[in-house]
Write a structure and sequence with these properties.
By secondary structure, this protein is an alpha/beta fold. The chain is built from 15 helices and 16 strands. The chain binds ligand V47.
Amino acid sequence: MVTTADRQSVARASNARVRDPDLEPIAEKVRRGERLTTEDGLALYETPDLWTVCALANVVRRRLHGDVAYYNVNRHLNYSNVCALSCSFCAFYRKAGADGAYEYSVEEVRAEALAAREAGATEMHIVGGLHPYLPLSYYTEMLAAIREAAPEIHIKAFTAVEIVHLARVAKRGRDGYEGIKSILADLSEAGLGSLPGGGAEVFDDRVHDEAYKGKIRAGQWLDVHRAAHELGLNSNATMLYGHIEERADRIRHLEMLREQQDRTLAAWADDGGLRVQTARGHDGRETNAVVLTGPDEQYTGPRLPTPETSRTGYFQTIIPLPFFPDDSALEHLPSPTGMENLRTLAISRLMLDNFPHVKAFWIMQGLELAQFMLQNGADDLDGTVVWYDITKLTGPTTHQETSVRDLQRAIRDAGFRPVERDTLYRPVQRDGKAWRVAT
Ligand code: V47
């Protein structure tokens, strides 16, 4: 719900002085709710005027979410680090039988679900490596065990590459798109609620072949999410940046995500009252674009395009992930700086005009920078997390937890109103450990 105070803050933000005159045409497009082009994206990267980039991202963020900033009470669970791949950016994977390799049993996952329930969590976010030996039944049993132990918890699980791996494990790899869709249907039947955004890395063949050869390419990653959306499952998207890719690769990545979301939203536009504009895709071709913000706000809540139509099956959130070099085969590279992280998040907000949410994942950005990002495009910090094995911000520990009090304090201190959400961005009403989705 966008209030008068929100409108005033949008107006203030829209009138922010543009210091670099080259950004004026881009600022004008943002004010009018028009789609930005590839060249605009590159100009936002090249300008020394980072403050205007951030101010423009703040205009869009405030149009969409006013003074609200989201967090959730969740648990991340990395069920196994055993992986058939050896991506050079990754410090998480181990080969089967190697020192430090682990996998949770279904009973251990059940115990985690009970602990999450005890702690009042609304979501379990579950991902792992491409385990060469676990059968499909391990995954469906894992979901069923969680559903039984904690039926109210939303299970957001498995990156696109894990889904493709499961199709191969279940000998449905040759069935292509239909094989992938049938795996998703089986997982959904067992309890899967949505897909996280991991494993997208950067959609570029050169970068793929140098840094994560063997992983699925852009087309397959997008296909898995398209199949999930067709089944009515929402999903997220990530971009892992700051390693061997170019800034132009990042812009193309964002454009490819935006075009896939266009195809979903444009099909809903007629009955949802969304305005369709003509734009150019990343390959120069004409597309039907749906921009969620404009001088008259269009986005109406957690379920696009209107609460009445209650549609699900779209990208909710973009999560830009800064590269952590430590202990990876790319350890010699520096990690992106705070300024680069801020700029990339702001540009993600501006380019992904049809994604409702932008997450500053505090585990990777650090809570201090994530808090600042709320003023520069982000509207979500992720949650309490508890255990996280893939990257480590401080030291070797995988216990990376923050309290609701600290998340709320960070949000308030940044000038926003903390709202606890469920995985689908519905506000949560909480009384201690007990909670329900607010109506
Ligand atoms: O898939 C792996 C990336 C992802 C490194 O959907 C690395 O809400 C940086 O996807 N440096 C997992 N990144 C995290 C993820 C995620 C996180 C929070 C919320 C959501 C969501 C999704 O982390 C992996 C991979 O792309 N990753 N290694 C690294 N060294």
